[in-house]
Each structure stands twice: as C-alpha cells, then as structure tokens.
Amino acid sequence: MKKSHNPKKVYITWHYTTHGIAYLKHVLSEFYRHKTDELPSEIAWAGLDQKELHALFSRPHKNAKGFTFDEIIYLTAPQEAFDGLSSRRFNYKHNYKDIPAFRPAEKMYDEIREKDDLCYNLAEEREYIQKNHPDKKELFEQNLWMDIQHYDVKTQIKWLLEDTNFSNVYDRSSFKEKEMPVSDLRDIKQITEELKRFVETLPKDDEYFINVSLGSSETQVAWHILADYNLLPEHTRFLTTYDDKNSNRDNKFKLFSIKEIPTTIFSNIGDEFSFFEGAKSAKRELVDIQLKRFLNMGFSILLIGERGIGKSSKIKDVKEQLNNEGTTKKILGKIIEVNCATFTDDNLAESRLFGYKKGAFTSADKDTDGLIKEAENGILFLDEVHALSPVIQEKLMKAFQTDENNTMSIRRIGDNKVEEKVKNVRLIFATNKSIDELRKVLLPDFYDRIVQYVIAIPPLRETREDIYEDWEKVWGYLKFENAPPAPKSSQLIAWLKGLPLYGNYRDLQKIAMYYHAFDKFNEEERKKICNNLGVACDALSYTKKQFELYHSPKDEAEGNIISVKLDWKNPRAKDLQMEFNYQLYAWAKKMYGKEKTIAEKLGVEVRTLNNWKKRK
Predict the structure, then answer these.
(1) H helix or E strand, kind and range, residue 153
(2) What is the topology classification, in CATH, of domain 9-85+153-261?
(3) What is the pLDDT of residues 509-543, one digit of tens each?
(4) How far apart are CA 463 and CA 440, in angstroms?
(5) Which residue, 249, 385, 533, 559, is most buried by CB atoms nearer than 10 A?
(6) Rounded to an integer, what distance in angstroms lies between the CA atom of residue 375 and that of residue 400?
(7) What is the largest CA-CA distance in the chain?
C-alpha cells in the first residue's frame, strides 16, 4: 500500500540585505514562542523586540515545544546581485558607533573597519581579534548578530547554522538555501520567471508560509503576480514583516510586526487601470502589470522615463479613470498633482506641500491645508522630483515616515506645537533623470525613500509595435479644427517606425503639426514651399523635410555624435579611429544602457564594444 504524504509546514523567504539573516532567526523565534502545533487562522503579532527574540533559542521550552517549521527555504541570489541592489553593506562600516553594546570595544572595531582587506571577512576578523584583542573575543561574538547583515550571504548562512543558538531548536537539515539564478534583483520579469520555475518543484500538499516583504520590491511584486495567476500551491499563506519606525527612537533596532496578508490582494483592485491599454509591445505590457501591482503595495512608486514620454499625462489618464470609476475611486481616492519644478523657492514649496496657519506670513489670511493633506486616502503625485531642493527633500523625508497604520505626521508653517496626522497617502514620483543622475541630486536618505518600486517607461523607439496607436492618440490630442482622422499611409507609418524619436511624444506632436499644416496651404502655396524645400509636393515629403531641418535626431539626442573623416596616410589615423569608436560607445551607452542592446543597435559584437570602451 502506498504511504500517504505527511504535509509539512514550510517557511520561505528571500534574503534581506538591510536586515540580514539574524532577522530570519528573530521571525522564527516569534513563531517558536507560541507553544502550539497549530497557528491561528490569522497571524498578527506586533511590538516584537529583536534583542529579546535573539536570546529566545538559548533557552528552549522545557515542558512544551514551541511552534517550528518542518522546513525553511532561504532564497538567495549571487552576491553581486545583492551588492547591486544595495551598497549599504559597504557604506555603513562605522554604524556600530551608534550601538551601545559596541562601545566597550570601539578601539578594536575601529582597527578592523579601517582595513578593507580585513573588514567583513569573518574568518580574518576572528583571527585578528584572537591575536590582538583576545579579551574582546566573547564580546565580538555576542555583538555579531547586530552587524551580520554587512557580511556576504554565504558567511551569514554559515554563521546561523554553526555559531548561533539556531541549532538549539532547528536541525541543520531543516534549513535549505536555494540560490536563484537571478543576476538583477530589479528585473521583475527574470525574478518572476525563476520563482515560477522554483514553485513548480514544491510538493503541492505542503503548507507554505511566504514572507513576501523581504528581498527587493520586485521580488515582492513577483510573489503577488504568481498568486494572481494561481501559480502557487493551494495551501499558501502570505506574511509581511515590518519595523515600527516610531518605536525605540534612540535605538537602531526597532520593534517590528509580523502580519498575514491576503494572497489575492490585487484580484479586484486596479485591473481597470492601464497606462497603455491594448499595448502590443511587451515592455508596455510590463509597465501596466507593475502599475496595477504596485498601487496597493504600500510603498512609493517612481516613474522614470525620458523627456516627452508622457509620465504626467499617464497619471492624468489614471486620474480621469478614477473620476469615472466610482468603485475604483473609493479604493484609490483622488490624485493630487504637484510639479516640483514650479517651486520658485523653498518657502513656496513648504507652504504648498505642508500648508500653513493663519498669520504664518503676510498673505496667510486663513488656515490652509497643504497638498499632502489634500491627498489623504488618495495619491500624491510629485512630478520632476529631482527639482526639489535639499531643504525640502529633508522635510519631506521626515513627513513620509509612516507608522504601522500608514499614517504620516506633518506640521503646517506657523504651527510649532501640533503635528497633523495624514492617513493613507500613496506616493508616486516622476523624473526624466537616470538613476545615476538622481543619486547625485537627491539626498541619500531621500533617494532611498522614493526609489522603492521603480517603473521604467520605455521610450517610443523601444515600442515600435505601438507607433500607429501613439500617432493616432497624438493626432486626436492636438484637436485640430475640422481635421480628418489621423493619416495612416504605409509610407508614413514606415517612416515613423524608423525614427529614433528622442523627443518621444513631443516629436510626434511636431510631425502631426507639420502634416496638418500642409493641408492648410492652397495648391499654389504648396508648390512654392515644396519647390523651395526641394521635395515632392505632398504632405509626407513636406513633413519629413521640416522635421529633418529643425528636429533632426542628432540634435535631439543626448550627447554628441561625432563624425570623423580619416586620412589613412595620416600617422594619427588609428588614434582618431579609436577615439571615434570610444565616443560612439559613450553616446550609445547613454541612449540604450545595456551592452547587448547597444551591440544590436550598432550591429557589432559585444566584444567589439569592450574594445571600443578600452580604446583598443
């Protein structure tokens, strides 16, 4: 007779760069504290102290066994993927100075942190301490859990299994690391595909507790995508863990909570929203998937896209949908739009964002709500966020810190006593700057606060399948008087598909204006104009020439395309060719980003690009 499968209870989580593997042990400790084999139908535990939980496994229950999972699956990626996600592992070498437990050995930690080849190499650190500070060895081991997140993933896992009280409760065989072949933890498509392959290998009858709040924001969304498409085992429960930012204000280790959330949170929310309804291109389809998933995840959304790609108009489209969809409006509320580039000074920015009390300044004739308050239970959209001054960034950074109930605390200008509570504001930011440019203009903490869920709006040249729909939309948007439907000759569409359109929708608008203007000339005027331009007398030829004259691709491109005519008898010809190749590579890097894409666009091998980059 075939033996029936005994269902197991399995805990699954991604490695979390900012908290490290000690956080896993603390979560498991809270489960263990509940002396029962069965968990409640809904998990909701708050006010959890990491220091208290860290010690729990050192004194296991004597008379009653606490709850343990049969298996723990710890999802990791190559170390380079985690380092690309967060540089905190390298940038916080001296954070121990803020932790009282480290102060008795501050001199020892200073010595270690100043040596790059030693710092965060656990085996080398231990050897150094044994040789130079043997009396501090025990203290070092006791403090290690508070600093373990800065070591590489493999070291953290080895520490958990071999050096901690984890083994007092769990057998080593119950812990299973699963390294996912994910090279980029911001690539939601790659993450979702790999997670799908992984969950297909899981026994269907087991019960799974998945902590969806760890990893990266993209891994969190990937879990919800799989749930929405019914790709997870039937007995799956989602958990989220989060710090209470208002607790232990003078302590780095905040109280935290563990809460169960629905796996189908998105099934009835946001499905009617679309930035690119009916899009044919995969990149636009992905944008819509991300938007629908991100809107209710509780974190901020950053829209990144080139100038003219229509980030603001996309939000206006969503706003219009909100106004027309009664049910959805109740869920997502109103949208308050702010163009940060319109703030001429910090005083204006602060008064508009935070509001002011009557008499706070000369023209303050009444108490006025700020835009943040107006966005309560709705969406606050900050466009051109890179234009905010450091002073306003700092004020917003403090305001955007929410408690466990997703409530902000703000203070109007002129009110030095009362903090105003603002509930449930979803934050959406937009910029035409790259991530690297944002890092340079934003304060590091403000950057971390807004760069959570990132949606990259693809330029038109990467979504050529949708060019006619874009053209038709722009034609209608311009509302030409007594204009016929958008022209759609095969020659016109083929030309549009071949343009780089560095100005995106703005370029399409210019083309539409030239095309429409041609019809406004009489026959004699057309002949004169086209003869002067040296083109055939039709709307497309006229439009092509006008666009070429005033909006040529090389004028619109970011960067300069250099042109070099080489005299191969010149002894410097080879140097000039190398310089040309290098400049071409630099320009293409700005335009297309990834090496593979550049190689495809320029029709060369990736290894050729590497030679150009090195001026070979």
Answers:
(1) helix 153-163
(2) Rossmann fold (3.40.50)
(3) 999 999 999 988 999 999 999 999 999 999 999 99
(4) 29
(5) 385
(6) 13
(7) 102
